[in-house]
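Q: Make up one entry.
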Amino acid sequence: MGRLDGKVALITGGARGQGEAEGQRFREEGAEVYLTDVLIEQGQAAAAAIGATFIEHDVTDSDAWSRAIERIEKEKGRLDVLVNNAGIFQMKGMVETERELWDRTIAINQTGVFLGLQAVAPVMIRQGSGSMINISSVAGLRGSGGAFAYGASKWAVRGMTKSAAQELSPYGVRVNSIHPGIIETAMVDEFSRKGINERVRQQIPMGHYAEVSEVANLALFLASDESRYCSGSEFVVDGGLTA
């Protein structure tokens, strides 16, 4: 018996990295999974590899959210888990952050999460149950001067999580945030490009980056009924980085 048997999950940014790993872990535990992304070929391949369904989906587009939710409701009749995973990361301090980078980061990392919460809430309220998991970052727990727009967006995700939890918990809908530290994904390439990879690694008490499976396992716990009394909380997986 799987920990997510009978549940239907939507995971944004599911074409690769953390999103793909979350989809695989959810499928292993019995969930019906929809992976969404703007990376069509990668998303289709990821979904095929784990037995999921792919939907082309720009998280900054409210109409795209409506179409995705309508399709899932039509095909499955319910939606039990939302993982707002899609996000971008670029290292630039406040002074050097161009307006274009700011707007794009906020649109994907912050507005995309807002639109997801807003689109999925009515479905879960009608059901009287559901788990929303917002992927924030350790940058949403402390200052992030070297990645100003990213840090701002991830603090916003933390705040929206708490506000949404207050609003939705009375309806049986839980909302929590995950705050990963440094994870072995394409985002690490940004550290390599800046030549600070080893310096960042040395700041982690455990001495190494996390694997995507370690974030996926935490997402699994929050998606399952094992976390049924958790709402409005931050869950950190960072190897002691913020200790």
